[in-house]
Amino acid sequence: MQPMSEDGLVRSDAGWFDTARRRRIGLPEAIYAPGKAETDLVALIEQSLASGEPTIVTRVERELAERLVDRFDLRPYPALERRAPMVALAGNPVPSSSLERVGLVGILAAGTSDRPVAAEAACVIETLGHRTRFVLDCGVAALARSVRAMEEVADADVVVVVAGFEGALASVVGGSMAQPLIAVPTSTGYGAARGGETALWAMLATCAQGVCVVGVDNGFGAGCAAVRIVGAAGRNA
């Protein structure tokens, strides 16, 4: 591994790592696991942890995540015992005490199958020092659950809605709550759900005003957007 340059870049056989990104935009560089050899992932994680910056590794296959957790001081999202097929990993969390303002982000996951994507959003938010309130299995198949879930996150600064199938939960929440809303379509669902495409188009076409939508299964992007919103609120307070 080469020493850090003046612009915060560190280079190894696994590539460049940008240790100054959080100073520029408030968000650290994350490590996207799919397609990377385990040796490259290990090298990048070592770079990130050594920099002291928050470390976030996304979409890690569970068996590989187990090996990485054994090797490094990393927290898995969701917990490994839940045996989710994909896991996000986090290290070097930002102390909440270092922030001007700690935000609260409500995360509503329509179904239990949406947990890994919702947990990825929570990984980003919590690793960057903010709080989350996670409500699972509150989809519109039983609307009373959706109503109760919205009551549970009524005091949140931002709400992230994670839903597959037809993605209706985003419209229900967007038409009921005033907070900034980030909708995450997931690839959960049968047939016409088309791997998340139906939920994506439904969320983009929602008549609930001001709903922001990220790509299919992009819990990481939703978490980053939530942190940007909370950070902007803190600067303008």
TrEMBL record:
Molecular function via GO: hydrolase activity
One example of a Gene Ontology biological process annotation: 'de novo' IMP biosynthetic process
Domain PurE: residue ranges: 103-235
Origin: domain of life: Bacteria
Pfam families named in the record: AIRC
InterPro entries: P2CMN_synthase_LarB, PurE_dom
Protein name from the UniProt record: 1-(5-phosphoribosyl)-5-amino-4-imidazole-carboxylate (AIR) carboxylase
Organism: Acidimicrobium ferrooxidans (strain DSM 10331 / JCM 15462 / NBRC 103882 / ICP)
